[in-house]
Amino acid sequence: MKKLTLEILTQESRVFSGEADLILAPASDGQIGILPGHVSLLTRLHPGEMFIFHGPQIEVLALGGGLLDIHNNEVSVLADSAIRAEEIDIYKVEEARKKAEEALKQKLSTREYVLAEADLRQAVMELKVARRHHYGR
Amino acid sequence: MSQSTRLIKRRIKSSQNISQITKAMEMVSAAKMKRAQGLAVNSRPYTERMYQVITSLSQKAKSQTEHWLFKDPRQNFDPKNEFKVLIVLFSTDKSLCGGLNTNLFRGLEKWLKNMTIEMNLPPKTSLTFVTVGRKAKDHVLRTGRFLMAEFSTMGDRPHFNDILPLARLISEGFKAGEFQMSFLAYMEFISTISQKLAVKQLLPIIAESAAARPELTFEADYIFEPKANIIFEALLPQYVELQLYHTLLESLASEHSARMVAMKSAHDNALEVVDQLTLEFNQARQSRITGELLDVITSRMALE
Description:
A: alpha+beta, 8-stranded mixed beta sheet, 8 strands, ATP_synth_F1_dsu/esu (chain A), ATP synthase epsilon chain (chain A), hydrogen ion transport (chain A), transport (chain A), proton-transporting ATP synthase activity, rotational mechanism (chain A)
């Protein structure tokens, strides 16, 4: 059976590079599933969970938005941030969430508010992914 | 005689001090270099892929979208007007990095001489500069050119957000027609011992022909989600930011590499000088001892 080749890149590093049978990604118009033979597509990604199925293995990543491009069964994800579920440090993220929540309570300029809100959303999303991953086992 | 040995001794001491300082600077630069190189090399695939996506899509989507960042001003340009070119020059803040900045400026001047012909520009062109780094600012002012803005000290750990003001300045200036073309000039990081001048066109974005890069041929049907022009609207400014950020990382990696190499050779030189001076010192001491011995012997012989 044909497989997808997937590459997940961020500004800092290559997070994932390998084959996959099925990919679930948080596209701008809702979750999309990608199987081999998908038509060419370019879509924006929302922050959310990404699932990579390869044989019996499932890999879960927390994505912080980005861009997804498919052609010829090659999937490339240009993510603003991407972290594997098992690499998320729950305590650290919990702390980040608290910090962001506190920052939101204080009076801030619009720009700072938006930044803090983005931080909070990221932390909450990472927590969700990490929790599901840890309890799922 | 004793005067000269003391002098030599002092010189040995100062050379040793220099060698210690340069050694320390070398080690600091080595640590910074490692990080800067890592950042620059790791951000390359992302930047290159983004470029691929944009250029290949611009081919496909040309019929669907028309974006101001793609507009080539060289076409339909009224030759009576002045064609303005913006050059974003990246240099270091500090010196002591060997010939890095000298090579940068010399290469740039050479490039500027041939720019009008090579880039196929209208005959009446004027230059505007935006600089990142103190040395670049100094150079532009020294050569008496027009400096529009300067950004100094992005620091050793530049954050993506640091580049946003610069990116906005350039994008908006281009949109408003303050300049018609923009180039990036910086020292490209090739390896620790080699950096070379790179001048890249930033704006308008060049959409390379798909035929030139066969690995990027696309099928006819391409789905865009959301609509192509919405994606482009968000993607193209991001592309400018990304290019600038990547350039900053590259020039930083070059800076630290060049500094480390320069400090290493300075350290080696200092040690060589110490060796030479030590030899000179020993010779001087020996000849003094010989002289004194001669004195003793002759006076002894005179007594006998």
